[in-house]
Amino acid sequence: MQPRDLFEKILSFYGSQNWWPGEGFEIAIGAILTQNTSWKNVEKALENLRHNNLLSPKSILNCDDELLVELITPAGFFNLKAQYLKNLCRLWVRNPKPNREALLSVKGIGEETADSILLYLLNEAEFVIDAYTIRISKRLGYGDSNDRKYWKNFYESNLDKDASVFNEFHALFVEHGKRFCKKQKPLCSNCFLVEDCEYGKINRV
Description:
mainly alpha; Endonuclease Iii, domain 2
């Protein structure tokens, strides 16, 4: 099954996911806060920032460090993330439309975070690779690599460069990873992709 066929099949099953939650610069904030934590925790931190009118680059830069740490505590790793947010805001004030290279030069922004900001905030066609994407892709039999660059190249080479498709595909991977293709106990026997999946054919019961 080609990646485009996979996209159509999982989109038909789940429907549009309407990602990313939030709008404007809040998307970039969320992309940093969601590192190594659940979105439920991020939502609490974002609500704290929203309540204090701290969803713009300038407001975050002007915010006292201790207050910022306190407000984003629900997202975990709060001391680091507070600094990462300020690092990003310094870039954003200088350049509100940074490219991938500029984002990756910021301490605290890796490939997944940079691509999420580019795709969901700036509508750039950058395929976001996360743990869900790698897990599902390997189980389907598309390859055996754990390298994010490998998978980014794989999907961007096999799909039209379309930000709306990349957006939806990433969101669908996350949904499928949570519902069926779980890390420890995948629900292969109930999965609608089982006949297309090398791992599922072997492990279904």
